[in-house]
């Protein structure tokens, strides 16, 4: 326990390769790299526990709260105070800052940021380089260089990653991952405290989305089971209007819930806003009210700024054109060939096998496209990591959009075979969802067991004694080291594993929305899949993977724009499906039927773009608190700014 009543544990581990054993009686060399690193970590106030495991050597690191507090002050973290304002953190004023929902001072993202600052902030402050050794290798520790970064480059430090808290992990397993009876209920605040805001936001969105799916699922099931008699011809148009309205309402109320979550977690500004303010402070001169120092303005060159802006825009247009060209010229023929083969194949078993083979083959194509997208993003002038991640999302989703829906469009438009389209929807949803769940849950398990086998086999081979047969992984740190990390399948340096989870949700949403009128009960399949997805994803994070590195984002980001785009596409595709259905079955004359469908389409487009003006994106209490806090912050900083300018002018006189 620390002085503030908070329990501190080992939250980060540093992995170094195992060295050759030294003979008994040999002294550890003074300039040994690992020994030097341990001494420097302890000098920085960190608690270090070192032990030799089977696959490697581990340094578990913990930090007293006072050390984390001083690191937070050095990082100039902004935290919410009890007067409702976000101020720069000061350890001496710690009682003024609002606690997290679990009672801790710092969130998991803030604690991990402090750990990174402490670990990578150890630099050579001497006037000369320091010669270090690791086995027979000599390492030159240059002055003013980060020790840990240098050791990573030299291969002395293999990895640095966060550790699971075993007690809290088991508690979440019981209350969340293995608690199937609660359906969509989840301990969101506890997820936020343990994993951070980005993962908690994803599970909050997934839970709300699954709960709302029960409504179209019930309506869709009723369209198949209930005979509406003479009103049957109005069932599909009514379902069409209901589904689009449902989607519009859902995302508007999700924005309200997201705002409420941010307020409950004490997050007043998005990461994008914070980075913009920091960028502006660095780019243009200003008065620093904390240091009471005035920086004189320099003229802003309008021409150069506009030139940079338009160069960045043109680069994005060029890169997007490359992606679109690749999709049309390379992916589209492949997708149409698959759709044609599927249509001429008469045996259902062969169709399932063809779909499975197609889904496996397309994964390789998508990975190649993803690598191309990542290389294109590096050429763009994106403002920060979030902007680059959003650009990656748009480009990669374009690839998946084509591969997921072109075959369905082919059957709906070219053949107008609604029965075949329904079968294809069922096969796609079942095969793709089952295949995705098997891949994302089995690969981490297989990877871990393979690494475990190789580590134990190597240990037995190296030791070569009868006792080596009893070698096993005795600590949880060794097991976590062998587990795969929570990373994205594409662009791992820009996104974490949530990229694949959001992509799976977006593709499912597009499929059930754009072809809702073709097969209304498809919402039932999506509901059942998401009920299992909540627990499967939770189990994956808690049992199969390392503890993810926390990210500051607290919204679904670019994915919201993709979901909104899919709603507009759903209005167009379902209007086309209704035309095909009623023209084919002869229940309407095409002229009045077409006019009615076009009228419905225009009404739904109005609902889509007009509903946001009637329902605010944030609850009234959140908006009132935000405006009040903003007014207080402006008043405070205005007074400090005026005092700073006055002091500067007096010093100039």
Automatic annotation (TrEMBL):
<dbReference type="Pfam" id="PF04547">
    <property type="entry name" value="Anoctamin"/>
</dbReference>
<feature type="transmembrane region" description="Helical">
    <location>
        <begin position="349"/>
        <end position="366"/>
    </location>
</feature>
<feature type="transmembrane region" description="Helical">
    <location>
        <begin position="322"/>
        <end position="342"/>
    </location>
</feature>
<keyword id="KW-0472">Membrane</keyword>
<protein>
    <submittedName>
        <fullName>Anoctamin-like protein</fullName>
    </submittedName>
</protein>
<feature type="transmembrane region" description="Helical">
    <location>
        <begin position="505"/>
        <end position="528"/>
    </location>
</feature>
<dbReference type="InterPro" id="IPR007632">
    <property type="entry name" value="Anoctamin"/>
</dbReference>
<feature type="transmembrane region" description="Helical">
    <location>
        <begin position="594"/>
        <end position="615"/>
    </location>
</feature>
<dbReference type="InterPro" id="IPR049452">
    <property type="entry name" value="Anoctamin_TM"/>
</dbReference>
<feature type="domain" description="Anoctamin transmembrane">
    <location>
        <begin position="191"/>
        <end position="628"/>
    </location>
</feature>
<keyword id="KW-0812">Transmembrane</keyword>
<feature type="transmembrane region" description="Helical">
    <location>
        <begin position="233"/>
        <end position="254"/>
    </location>
</feature>
<dbReference type="GO" id="GO:0016020">
    <property type="term" value="C:membrane"/>
</dbReference>
<dbReference type="GO" id="GO:0005254">
    <property type="term" value="F:chloride channel activity"/>
</dbReference>
<feature type="transmembrane region" description="Helical">
    <location>
        <begin position="556"/>
        <end position="582"/>
    </location>
</feature>
<feature type="transmembrane region" description="Helical">
    <location>
        <begin position="397"/>
        <end position="418"/>
    </location>
</feature>
<keyword id="KW-1133">Transmembrane helix</keyword>
<feature type="transmembrane region" description="Helical">
    <location>
        <begin position="199"/>
        <end position="221"/>
    </location>
</feature>
